[in-house]
Write a structure and sequence with these properties.
Largest sheet: none
Helix content: 55-70%
Radius of gyration: 31 Å
Structural class: mainly alpha
Number of helices: 5
Order of helices and strands: HHHHH
Length: about 110
């Protein structure tokens, strides 16, 4: 038997998966969700101020805090006593704000 060089066992296989250059992602401007949320909350608070003119000062303060904290209508609707205390909202006014979110949505849609 002739003296052949050793054959690699098992034979090395080449990859059959095609190699593809990565496709660069198309960059777009970021979506400003905060602007939309603030407009909605701002409109809701303006609507509340028109409905309850006796609480204009308190509602204006709450409006500014909500806009600063980027609160949305769903949060206002789900607020609890602890949330009212955290935002320094009188309990009765807080319940009024939470309860009337649904009315506002139905009236404006």
């Amino acid at each position: 038997m002739p003296n052949y060089p050793p054959y690699p066992y098992p034979p090395q296989r080449r990859s059959v998966t095609p190699i593809q250059d990565p496709i660069p992602a198309i960059q777009s401007s970021p979506v400003d969700f905060a602007a939309h949320l603030n407009k909605t909350v701002s409109k809701y608070m303006d609507w509340m101020i028109k409905r309850t003119p006796n609480d204009v000062n308190e509602l204006s303060k709450v409006k500014n805090v909500f806009i600063t904290d980027m609160v949305d209508l769903q949060f206002i609707k789900a607020m609890t006593k602890a949330d009212y205390a955290d935002y320094s909202i009188p309990k009765g006014l807080g319940r009024h704000l939470s309860r009337d979110v649904g009315t506002y949505i139905h009236e404006t849609v």
